[in-house]
């Protein structure tokens, strides 16, 4: 199931790291990868990511379930490049009218696909191993995020799993009152749109009431907030960030040494 | 603690902007499946016709909350939520989201957060769309030709953002006002008594 | 700490012409325990919100003053704890312990004092789970107890409770009352809103009755108030203790079978259950919180597909459609045959005004507009909602919303009516009105199924009872 609950073994050595550290590590690691267009650096990065996966307590099966939309995106990238590439260097493999599929084009496409996967996986890993409450706490305590906004977003995030139930409730209410679409596809679409709108309205209404409930318990009282759940940024967390930078840099260096490096801009 | 005309966000501003963002984060997640699934039938750059949906929260947040940072906050959180749920662009939305959100925010800032009429909403949607398309072109579609791909892609995205995010966001805000849920926001203030 | 002073207090919600409360002069001393009464819509919930400092300036207009210990309530929030009519909207965090800690964090309580206070509050309300339990996995009664713990952990000088037991089964309600009684310190002021006076009396030493038009109708010790004004208050809708309600048992023998459930269930929400509903009879479905009563109501109402077993309609109910199960019927046909009233009234609303809400069903089933108008006007008058015809359903008071949701199901005159907790949160007058409405329907040959925790309602109306239990299903008792 895709949802806000973490799906990893919480006690795994890296899953236990501070959420801000995980976030920073993943971000730094991927920024390095965005900077290059070659296939070598991302290929190394993917290998690294798959290797550290057990340390985060994520099983490969879980990752596959969460990451499958990536493969669909990959197809889209290849098709786009085949149709619209500016330079068609290399050997011509297939020729269909104006479109020439060359080895150069395919190499660039391969680089982009690998890069996309390499960049997306850290995000999947971070969110699969991080509880939303812990993330908000760590953002406040270790990254100096404004507490009111972090907690407000957290309270809203709790509504994600409730949206599905709400959709069911709205549909039942309509049916009970004689509203349905029958087999007419236009009516079906209209009912879908109006149900979605009702869902949004209901969510906002919930939000306004939640805000009142939060104020009732002194959320905006102006007193400096304390935090019940301590999040610490330890040496191990710093090490995780440093490790991510080092590994990202290593992938890039390998690509430069092999002569495949191509900067994004230039 | 209940100022409405100052720039300080009330609790209700924060929570409602967050709730809208979360709802759109879920929509983004689903829209991403559509974009890379059935919508593949329309090849790029034509598929950019659908692009405006990604930018609606910026316009909606700006129009409803009417505080500095509202457009930026709402779209950024929406992007982050879709990442958390497992979006296919994954992680780079963490960069792209704030970028396009800042562009959407710019429109409201240009008018000093005093004007929340249609032209500003349309501008906000369009700017956000252009920023998003530029990012795409450089990061996701490098090596493509300007003439046959990049320019059309950016223009179609801008048009889609103008219509879907700008006009759509405006219409959605009006529809929400009609339901009474925005009674505590400036947008919902002008209604008759029963 | 926790003294309340109201001087000529009034509040008008934005978008309303009528004042929700007006001209209230009241002083409550620290440590007093007050039961706040008044007919549905008299402004009880509004008054509690005012005491908690939760009526923002931008949501209405105020008259007179409110003070908590001499302070504006918006500045005195740290002295006040409130539990709302609907506890679900009150939970903020994903884990129970965090939710109780939330208020303490906001008040800047030092981190090492927080968890002992959380544990103490959870213990005082008899919360059965540990701190890591997800809040999404709680039943209504458990949510209520958690919300109470969240309020108590703040050690409020003034505790405000709005119908804290409305949706609970009788043992659950008793538990919450015990928890409140045990949790109050000698100097904690309590203001409790509760329609069922008899149950609330052990908790209070003073009764204040609000007058719907404005002002305070009666004020004093329970004996004084009910001794001096008992009859008048009962006529106005207050549940004065010791007054019985007339029974409306069925007169004729029940007619043909309308609906038959055979081993009907939906694991894990409802174990297989057998039952039959006949024309001209009222069947009460009872059972503890979480037994699956609401699930059963949805299954019978053709809104959810059965997980096990079958629901079959007779020809008397469905004509030619009798061969297909209700959940496969087209919606307009369903609405004219089986009407459903949901447990949470707000889950039932689909339009923007009270009038449209009532007109929707009849319009969808193709009645002429003139007939729709007269049906709607009739229902509005009967349930005293006429003045609210243009109001947004989501701004109604708890009792008003409940009445509207019952009325929407009645609007299409279905042959079979299935109601989930139709009488909770009702004042005595509306309660009697509802019993009459259901009894009239039943006597006119309709079938009525009512899911309820309300023993008086069962005694007054039900011809037959079905008790569900948690675990393997039990059959109907004659
Ligand atoms: N948010 C709101 N906007 C507009 N009107 C409201 C709002 N909340 C309540 N009202 C109206 O104010 C009046 C008083 O409502 P309130 O909820 O205080 O009643 P109550 O005494 O608690 O009734 P009940 O016993 O039914 O819960 C009602 O007529 C209601 O329709
Ligand atoms: N949508 C749902 N998904 C999963 N479980 C549910 C759902 N709705 C209810 N349940 C669970 O099914 C069981 C029966 O729920 P139901 O609402 O039918 O009980 P009930 O008898 O009506 O209780 P109450 O008296 O509290 O209203 C409960 O344990 C509940 O937690
Ligand atoms: Mg009330
Ligand atoms: Mg129920």
Automatic annotation (TrEMBL), chain A:
Instruction: Show the stretches that span the lipid bilayer.
Output: 20-37, 43-60, 67-86, 106-128, 149-167, 187-204, 238-261
- Subcellular location(s) of the protein: Membrane
What membrane topology does the annotation report for this chain?
Multi-pass membrane protein
For this UniProt entry, what's an example GO CC term?
A: plasma membrane
- Keywords in UniProt for this one? Cell membrane, Membrane, Transmembrane, Transmembrane helix
Name the UniProt record assigns to this protein: Energy-coupling factor transporter transmembrane protein EcfT
Automatic annotation (TrEMBL), chain B:
Q: Which UniProt keywords apply?
A: Membrane, Transmembrane, Transmembrane helix
Say which domain of life the source belongs to: Bacteria
InterPro entries per UniProt: ABC_thiamin-permease_prd
Q: Where are the transmembrane segments?
A: 12-36, 48-65, 72-89, 120-141, 153-177
Q: What is this protein called?
A: ECF transporter S component
Q: State the species of origin.
A: Micromonospora globbae
Origin organism lineage:
Bacteria, Bacillati, Actinomycetota, Actinomycetes, Micromonosporales
UniProtKB/TrEMBL annotation, chain C:
> From what superkingdom does this record's organism come?
Bacteria
UniProt cross-references to SUPFAM superfamilies, sorted A to Z: P-loop containing nucleoside triphosphate hydrolases
A Pfam family that this protein carries is: ABC_tran
| A GO molecular function held by the record | ATP hydrolysis activity
Q: Which SMART domains match?
A: AAA
Signal peptide segment: none
Keywords attached to this entry: ATP-binding, Nucleotide-binding, Transport
- Among its keywords, does the record have Transport? yes
Could you give one GO CC term from the UniProt record?
A: ATP-binding cassette (ABC) transporter complex
Q: Which InterPro entries match?
A: AAA+_ATPase, ABC_transporter-like_ATP-bd, ABC_transporter-like_CS, ABC_transpr_CbiO/EcfA_su, ECF_ABC_transporter_ATP-bd, P-loop_NTPase
The ABC transporter domain covers which part of the protein?
4-238, 252-477
To which protein family does this belong?
Belongs to the ABC transporter superfamily.
Q: What is this protein called?
A: ABC transporter ATP-binding protein
Lineage runs: Bacteria, Bacillati, Actinomycetota, Actinomycetes, Micromonosporales
């Amino acid at each position: 199931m895709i949802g806000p609950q973490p799906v990893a073994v919480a006690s795994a050595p890296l899953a236990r790291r501070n959420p801000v550290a995980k976030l920073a590590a993943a971000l730094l690691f991927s920024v390095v990868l965005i900077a290059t267009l070659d296939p070598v650096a991302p290929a190394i990065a993917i290998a690294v990511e798959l290797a550290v996966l057990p340390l985060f307590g994520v099983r490969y099966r879980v990752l596959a379930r969460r990451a499958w939309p990536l493969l669909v995106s990959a197809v889209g990238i290849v098709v786009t490049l085949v149709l619209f590439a500016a330079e068609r260097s290399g050997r011509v493999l297939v020729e269909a009218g104006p479109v020439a599929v060359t080895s150069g084009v395919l190499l660039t496409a391969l680089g982009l696909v690998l890069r996309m996967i390499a960049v997306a996986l850290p995000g999947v890993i971070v969110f699969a191993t991080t509880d939303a409450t812990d993330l908000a706490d760590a953002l406040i305590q270790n990254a100096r995020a404004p507490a009111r906004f972090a907690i407000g977003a957290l309270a809203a995030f709790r509504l994600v799993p409730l949206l599905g139930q709400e959709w069911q409730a709205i549909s039942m209410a309509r049916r009970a009152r004689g509203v349905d679409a029958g087999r007419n596809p236009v009516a079906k679409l209209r009912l879908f749109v109006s149900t979605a709108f009702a869902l949004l309205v209901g969510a906002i209404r919930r939000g306004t009431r939640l805000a009142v409930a939060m104020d009732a318990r002194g959320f905006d009282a102006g007193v400096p907030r304390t935090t019940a759940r301590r999040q610490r940024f330890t040496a191990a967390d710093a090490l995780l960030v440093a490790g991510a930078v080092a590994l990202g840099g290593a992938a890039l260096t390998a690509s430069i040494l092999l002569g495949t490096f191509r900067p994004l801009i230039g | 603690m209940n100022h409405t005309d100052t720039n300080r966000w009330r609790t209700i501003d924060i929570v409602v902007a967050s709730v809208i963002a979360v709802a759109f984060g879920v929509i983004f997640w689903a829209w991403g499946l559509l974009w890379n699934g059935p919508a593949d039938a329309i090849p790029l750059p034509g598929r950019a016709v659908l692009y405006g949906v990604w930018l609606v929260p910026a316009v909606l947040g700006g129009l409803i909350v009417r505080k500095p940072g509202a457009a930026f906050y709402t779209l950024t959180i929406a992007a982050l939520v879709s990442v958390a749920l497992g979006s296919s662009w994954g992680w780079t939305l963490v960069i792209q989201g704030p970028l396009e959100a800042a562009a959407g925010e710019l429109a409201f800032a240009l008018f000093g957060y005093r004007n929340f009429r249609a032209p500003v909403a349309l501008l906000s949607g369009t700017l956000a769309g252009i920023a998003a398309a530029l990012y795409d072109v450089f990061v996701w579609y490098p090596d493509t030709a300007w003439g046959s791909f990049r320019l059309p892609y950016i223009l179609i995205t801008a048009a889609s953002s103008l219509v879907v995010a700008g006009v759509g966001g405006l219409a959605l805000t009006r529809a929400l006002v009609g339901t009474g849920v925005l009674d505590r926001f400036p947008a919902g203030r002008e209604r008759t008594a029963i | 700490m926790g003294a309340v002073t109201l001087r000529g207090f009034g509040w008008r919600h934005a978008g309303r012409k009528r004042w929700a409360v007006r001209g209230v002069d009241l002083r409550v001393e620290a440590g007093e325990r007050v039961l706040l009464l008044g007919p549905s819509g008299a402004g009880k919930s509004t008054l509690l919100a005012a005491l908690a400092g939760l009526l923002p300036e931008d949501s209405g207009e105020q008259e007179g003053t409110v003070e908590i210990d001499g302070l504006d309530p918006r500045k005195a929030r740290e002295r006040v704890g409130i539990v709302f009519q609907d506890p679900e909207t009150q939970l903020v965090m994903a884990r129970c312990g965090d939710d109780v800690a939330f208020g303490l964090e906001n008040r800047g309580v030092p981190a090492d004092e927080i968890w002992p206070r959380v544990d103490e509050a959870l213990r005082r309300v008899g919360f059965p789970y540990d701190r890591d339990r997800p809040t999404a996995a709680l039943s209504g009664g458990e949510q209520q107890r958690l919300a109470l713990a969240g309020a108590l952990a703040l050690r409020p000088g003034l505790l405000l409770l709005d119908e804290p037991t409305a949706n609970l089964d009788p043992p659950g309600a008793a538990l919450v009352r015990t928890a409140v009684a045990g949790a109050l310190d000698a100097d904690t002021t309590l203001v409790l809103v509760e329609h069922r006076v008899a149950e609330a009396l052990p908790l209070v030493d003073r009764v204040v009755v609000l007058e719907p038009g404005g002002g305070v109708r009666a004020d004093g010790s329970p004996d004084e108030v009910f001794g001096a004004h008992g009859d008048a208050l009962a006529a106005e809708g207050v549940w004065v203790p010791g007054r019985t309600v007339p029974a409306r048992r069925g007169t004729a023998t029940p007619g043909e079978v309308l609906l038959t459930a055979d081993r009907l269930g939906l694991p894990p929400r409802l174990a297989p259950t057998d039952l039959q509903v006949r024309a001209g009879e009222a069947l009460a479905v009872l059972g503890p919180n979480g037994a699956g009563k609401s699930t059963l109501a949805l299954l019978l109402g053709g809104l959810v597909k059965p997980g096990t077993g079958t629901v079959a309609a007779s020809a008397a109910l469905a004509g030619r459609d009798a061969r297909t199960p209700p959940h496969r019927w087209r919606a307009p046909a369903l609405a004219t045959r089986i009407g459903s009233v949901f447990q949470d009234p707000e889950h039932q609303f689909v339009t923007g005004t009270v009038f449209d809400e009532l007109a929707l069903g009849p319009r969808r089933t193709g009645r002429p507009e003139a007939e729709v108008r007269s049906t709607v006007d009739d229902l509005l008058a009967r349930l005293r909602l006429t003045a609210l015809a243009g109001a947004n359903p989501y701004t109604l008071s708890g009792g008003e919303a409940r009445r509207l949701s019952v009325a929407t199901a009645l609007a299409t005159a279905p042959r079979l009516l299935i109601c989930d907790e139709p009488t909770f949160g009702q004042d005595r007058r509306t309660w009697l009105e509802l019993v009459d409405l259901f009894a009239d329907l039943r006597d006119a040959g309709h079938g009525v199924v009512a899911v309820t925790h309300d023993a008086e309602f069962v005694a007054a109306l039900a011809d037959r009872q079905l008790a569900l239990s948690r675990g393997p299903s039990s059959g109907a008792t004659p």
